[in-house]
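Collaborator request, handled under Task 6.
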Amino acid sequence: MNRAEKSDLSSALKQKFSKAEVAIFADYKGLTSAQADELRRRLRTHNVEVKVLKNNIARLAVGDGFLGNDAKQVLDETVGPTLVAFAYGDASAAAKEIYKFSEENEALKIKDSLMGSKRIDAAAIEQLGKLPPREVLLANLLGTMCAPVTNFVRVLAAVPRGLVTVLAAIEKKKAG
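Structure tokens returned to the collaborator:
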């Protein structure tokens, strides 16, 4: 591979890193091609692109400091066969799927990764994978925001309701 091809691959990789919400690195040594295809198929539904990383080209991509020092450190420490999942959509859905796949297939080992230009360790990817889906988190947030207003309305409605109850009891006592 000549210098121009390496430069083209490096700029394409740089673009993928800058576009992705999260880039999850994993050691795939020992995965069969069928298992790797299954991982790609699962992740494709979550708008995640899976690539096998060429370590030297990745170092070229972050060598100029475009993505920051954390990215440079992560890629400098990357050795051996490395798979990168670029999540362009929901980061927790991608992390959840990769974490679940790594639990099912011991050959896939999650490494330190990048969220934007910040370094996150494998335990953080595991925590991100254990988060509920985005819709559930938004529903919980909305419920939390609406709770004080709902309780205030209930308190305000309690006074007239109590009055109506007392009046109904007085009417029943006079009638009976």
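The cover message to the collaborator said: "Residues 134-175 form the longest helix (42 residues). The mean pLDDT is 87. Please let us know whether this matches your experimental observations."
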